[in-house]
Amino acid sequence: MHFLDLKSADAARARQSQLTKPAGSLGRLEELAIWFAERLGNSTPGRLKPAIVIFAADHGVAAEGVSAYPPSVTSQMVLNFIAGGAAINVIAREHQAGLVVIDVGVATPYPLPSGELSPGMRYFRLPVRAGSGNLRIEAAMSSEDCSKAWQIGVQVARQAQERSKNLLIGGEMGIGNTTAAAALICALTDTDPADIVGSGTGIDAAAREHKIAVVREALARARAAGATTPQDWLAQVGGLEIAALAGFYTEAAALGIPVVLDGFISTAAALVAVRCDSSVGDWLLASHASQELGHRRALAELGLTPLFDLGLRLGEGSGAALAIPLLQTALALHRDMATFAQAGVDHI
C-alpha distances in angstroms, 124 versus 112, 121, 226, 256? Predict the structure, then answer.
C-alpha cells in the first residue's frame, strides 16, 4: 500500500496561501489541489492522465422484473460502447481520456468487433461466467467466481499504471445491477432496503416496492447461508462487474493511484473494497450525488462529499468522467497562478 505524502501536501498548502487570491476563495478547488499533491507526491502536480474502465456483466435477478429494460440491453450497450455511441464515449473523447470496456460476464451473445474500434477505445472479453445467479433465490456467484472477477479488476488497474495513468475511473453496465448494489449497501450498512432501493432505470412505484421485497428476500437468504464478511456478501448478493470494480479500486489504492467514484453501483463496490481494507478510502474521491435513493447514504459511510449534483443516474462512469475538467482546472490553478511575490501584489 502506498502512503500519503504529507510533505507534498504541506508544500501545496503553503503555496495556496501565497497565490494571488484571498485565502480559501477557491473553496474545494484548493482542497482538491492539496489532495492530489498528497497522493501524487508532488506539491504542484501536472495534468492528470485519466483512464476510464467499464466492466459489463448481467444479473440473474433481472428475471424478477426489477429493471425497466430486458437483460439483452447489457450486450447491446457493450456494442454501443465499442461503436463509440454511448454517453461515456462522448465524455471520454471530449476530455481526451482513454476508455476500456471489459466483458466480465455478459449473458446474451453478441458479435465480436471485426474492424477497428472507435478512437481511444480498448475492448476485452474476459467473461467469468454468463451473468450472475438470481440473488433472490441463490448466491449471485461462487466465492471462486467472485475472486476471479476481483482479480480481473486488479489486473486492469496494474495495466493502467503500466500505461502511466494517474487517475482511474470505474464504470459499469449491467441490467439489474442497482438491485445488487442496493442489497450490498443494505448488508454492509445494516440499513433497511426501503431507505436504499431506488428506481434504477426508471421503474414505477409499484415496481420499486417489488424491488424492495426482492432485496429483503435476498438479504434474508444470504444471512441464512452464513454471509458475514464483505466478500461473503459480495458473492451472495453482488455481481461480477461489482466484484471487478472492487478489485480495481483496491489495487489502485495499493499502487497509489487516485480514484474518482461514479454513482450508486461504483460506490457500492467501493464500500466493499473499503470494508475489506480501510486504507482504500484514502484514495477515493466522490464525483457526484446520484439520483438513486441510497447513494448519499453509501457516500456518507465512506466519509465522502460529492463534488456536484446534476441529477444523474446513468452509470457507465459518466458522472465521474464529468469531473475530469474540474479536477484538471483545480490543478492548473494551483500550478499556474502567480504568487503575491511574482505578481507584485501586496499580501497582508
Answer: 10, 10, 34, 24
Q: Residue 215's closest CA among 260, 160, 178?
A: 178
Tell me the three cell numbers of residue 43.
506539491
In CATH, 50-325 is 3.10.290.10: no
Task: Please provide the CATH number assigned to the domain covering 6-46+332-343.
Answer: 1.10.1610.10
Instruction: Tell me the per-residue pLDDT of 174-192, one tens digit each, with 9 for 90 and over.
Output: 999 999 999 999 999 999 9
Q: Say which of 64, 241, 251, 316 is annotated catalytic.
A: 316
- In the chain, what are the domain boundaries? 6-46+332-343, 50-325
State the helix-helix crossing angle for 28-40 and 6-18, rounded to 10 degrees.
Answer: 150
Does this chain's domain 6-46+332-343 share its CATH topology with 50-325? no
CA angle 149, 187, 237 (to 5 degrees): 40
Give yes or no: 94 in active site.
no
- Could you report the per-residue pLDDT of 185-234, keeping only the tens digit for each? 999 999 999 999 999 989 999 999 999 999 999 999 999 999 999 999 99
